[in-house]
Write a structure and sequence with these properties.
about 300 residues, alpha/beta, Rossmann fold, 2 domains, 8-stranded mixed sheet, 4-stranded antiparallel sheet, 14 strands, about 30% strand, binds S-adenosylmethionine
Length: about 300
């Protein structure tokens, strides 16, 4: 983990109070902490840094269960294809990430991509902001993103059919800067970052995956600046009981709080500034992109991800 992150980090277990974490560095390489720990002087919690990866998800026991599909190597390979397929000229590659990136106006400050998986959008933001951070609860995803950050090239085994595979190589373009990105294991519902520290916040295909979608928006709002900030949310709104109980959904139901469609409800929440979502956001016209996940040569998932871009 790059040392420059230290000044941003706070204990995710002590929220809403913000206590700085103290680093105990065991092994370092230039400005990177390879091995060590981060310690909260208030609650005494310890967060490890192993092989350069900071483990800052306070609920990691839940998210790293073997049942967490995002730790599975086949799923890592699927997401590497989804994020970087364009770079190895796959004719079926998704253009979604480039389209989302175009929605962000270049801006000074730090970008944070929540649930950023294997890192594509974080790399895109390294070209539009001073620094970009990707967080995800999946250790396997963050390891893959950091490998790309360090090596700038990664061989990926893509499934053809059954036990057959072929290998492709991802090479990052020069416009994406390794010295301007970092990836940490963290939870979007308890972000280890100081309030008002983030200029550009993105949440792509995440809001329907967390147990409390409103808490995710509140955490987004806590860490983003009160002015000079952008927020991009995109999602297929595939609400499910597996991710969150119905009473927590922000849409997809006929009655009760947040009845109607998720995208409209998120836009109303942002524009209203209530529920700890102020100062109010100026919400732009909604839109959608086709997002793709590849399982094997003959099997893809095509997902319409509906977005809203907001500024304040
Ligand atoms: C559907 S994927 C979308 C990944 C990426 N944003 C994209 O659009 O390609 C959902 C991602 O959210 C991560 N995730 C799920 N719950 C999370 C949480 N509470 N905090 C942070 N990441 C989370 C998963 O590990 C996974 O990488």
């Amino acid at each position: 983990m790059k040392k420059q992150l230290l000044e941003l980090l706070i204990c995710p277990l002590c929220l809403p109070f913000e206590y700085s974490l103290v680093a105990d560095i065991r092994e370092e390489d230039k400005s990177d902490i390879e091995t060590g720990s981060l310690h909260c002087p208030h609650c005494a919690a310890q967060f490890l840094i192993t092989e350069g990866v900071a483990l800052l998800d306070p609920y990691s026991a839940d998210s790293q269960q073997p049942t967490n599909k995002y730790e599975n190597m086949e799923v890592v390979s699927s997401y590497l294809w989804s994020h970087y397929g364009e770079l190895f000229d796959d004719p079926h590659a998704s253009q979604a990430y480039a389209t989302w990136a175009e929605l962000i106006n270049p801006q000074g400050g730090i970008a944070l991509d929540a649930g950023g998986a294997v890192g594509r959008f974080t790399f895109e933001m390294s070209n539009r902001c001073d620094f970009a951070i990707g967080i995800d609860t999946s250790h396997a995803f963050i390891q893959a993103a950091r490998r790309l950050m360090r090596q700038r090239s990664l061989a990926v085994r893509l499934k053809d059919e059954g036990l057959l595979h072929h290998e492709v190589t991802i090479n990052l373009p020069d416009a994406w800067h390794s010295d301007k990105v970092e990836f940490v294991v963290a939870n979007a519902l308890a972000l280890p970052f100081r309030k008002k520290s983030i200029a550009v916040f993105s949440s792509l295909n995440l809001v329907d995956k967390v147990p409390s979608p409103l808490k995710h928006l509140q955490e987004m709002n806590r860490v983003t600046r009160g002015s000079g900030a952008q927020f991009l949310l995109s999602d297929p709104f595939s609400w499910s009981n597996e991710a969150a109980p119905v009473d927590q959904w922000l849409g997809g139901k006929a009655e009760g709080p947040y009845a109607g469609k998720g995208l409209a409800n998120v836009a109303t929440l942002l524009a209203g500034g209530q529920n700890d979502l102020g100062p109010v956001w100026q919400v732009g016209e909604p839109g959608s992109v086709w997002w793709k996940i590849r399982t094997h040569t003959n099997h893809y998932e095509l997902i319409r991800s509906c977005f809203v871009h907001a500024c304040r």
